[in-house]
Amino acid sequence: MLLKRGLKGQVTIFIVVGILLVALAVLIFVFFQKSSPVKSEVPKEFQPIYNDFLSCLEEQVSFGISLMESKGGRIYEETFEPGSSYMPFSNVLDFLGNKIPYWYYVSGNNLEREKVPSKLEMQNQLALFLEESVSRCSFEKYYPQGFSVYTYSPKASVKILDKSVELDLRMPMSITFGEDSNFISNSHEVSVKSNLGSLYDAAVKIYNYEQNSLFLEEYTLDVLRLYAPVDGVELSCSPKTWNADEVFEEFSSALEGNLYALRNKEGNYELNDKRNKYFVLDFDVPYDVRFLTSRNWSKTYEVVPSTGNLLIATPVGNQAGLGIMGFCYTPYHFVYDIKYPVLVQVSHGDEIFQFPFAVVVSGNNPRESLVGEYIEQPSSQVCDSKNTPMNVVAYDMNADPIVADISFQCAGVSCDIGSIKSRSGFVENFPQCVNGVLVAKSEGFVSAKRIVSTVNPGTLEIFLNKLYELDVNLKLNGAEYSGDAMILFNSPDHSAAINYPHTKEISLSSGEYEVRVYIYRNSSIKIPSSVNEQCIDSPKSGLSGLFGLTEEKCFEIEVPSQIVSNALHGGGVQNYYILESEISGATTLEIGATSLPAPTSLEKLQENYLLFEDNRMDITFK
Fold this sequence. Notes:
globular; 37 strands; alpha+beta; 10 helices; disordered N terminus; 5-stranded mixed sheet
């Protein structure tokens, strides 16, 4: 019996030692997975799989570069900001279905916006894109051969250089075959040849050149004076008229051609013709540069004085002493406000980096240039000096904790802090800052900002409004409406717009909104041609004119016929506060609008726009 107890004790010791050895091996494995970027040499039998994986990474990097170049240095879209009838620019230019964020534009409420991405922001967006796209790399074809591939959470780091983009992907990856053959790697590096970095630098140089010299506004004024009546005088005793639509159509066509002819002196162009030197710009960018605009893009052309659709110049010449010569002249001075987008394309080979910005001419003059230049800050000292621990917690409006991505803005610099993933929040170091801005973003919520100070350690709480997806049901005079309408919800924190009935879903949160519904219907309002008589006092000819005697001379002004094919027929404006309690349980937003009188003339159509502002609506959540 004593012998049996001794053997049992020895077996127990061996089991304990075995467990300790296994635990130690697991700890060593985990340690190297988390801390060591070094990977062992790939065994020959695993090389096809690993090479396929690296090729897939290169494809994803190339795809991300292409997206970034086509979207002005960004991949992810920001919240849409609509323009207005005064300023036609939203925060993105729709170019062949590709929504490209503006680098400079004027918002619908006439505020200048400058949103040039830094190279650091580009690297962060590309890294995030690659973390999300790693899952596209498939190993399915190797599984039937007996291989097993396991991957874990990726963390990407990207460097954008002048001639390449470098990816360092930290992602535990295990490849096994049978029970004895395996390969483990934690770090995967690829380098893709690309001119993204140098093309971006060239784009910033062009952007600064425009902001300092306003050369596009100056070229616009040149085209305007060549193709539209601005200032002048004609020896004529009869009025002179222009059709504004025809003037703007000719101006738009000329603008497209003239801007496309612009080029930089370092580009690969033929400049032997001296006439081309007018179109050569003085900035040293070693790539081909093109400037595009289109008459089909959102724009605003305005001119005063005008009478309806006509620009009329009235003759003068009733000064005493001029009548003996039969002398009359017709002066004119028209003032234009012009706002339109330009897309800049910087290209080298097959790579094209493009970004749009707004061109604004006001009162026949260029807008005021922005002071200074955009200068990239690749590594902010503010963000590098994070030494104040802060506990950050994000809540919804019911005080329930939520996950959120946190950033912090101080002294004009935005620092990425991290992500809240637990109900208790997280503790991270912040740069010391007085009156900084805490920013929280979470999928399905409206982004929130809060002014805070991080001089001393503490707790920061921030609340986010939840977004609710709602089906929109529009009624006109109590009946279901299926025609065209534009529905706008505007608030300081969140705006949404849909083109009904092509889109019938909208995302809204609680809060105060101004709701606008424009209902249009096909119209055949015909404004017939007319002949108006205009009379002036003109000096008499001969000796009578010497004594200042005048006679009435009348002229006929022909107004061409017009057809208004799409007229405002209903809708209105309503201020409405959406309560969390009414939107949280709703699935449908019902808007009850009323019609306006059917316009039968231009005057009636104008009256509809005045009635529209006082027309109220019923808003119900169901």
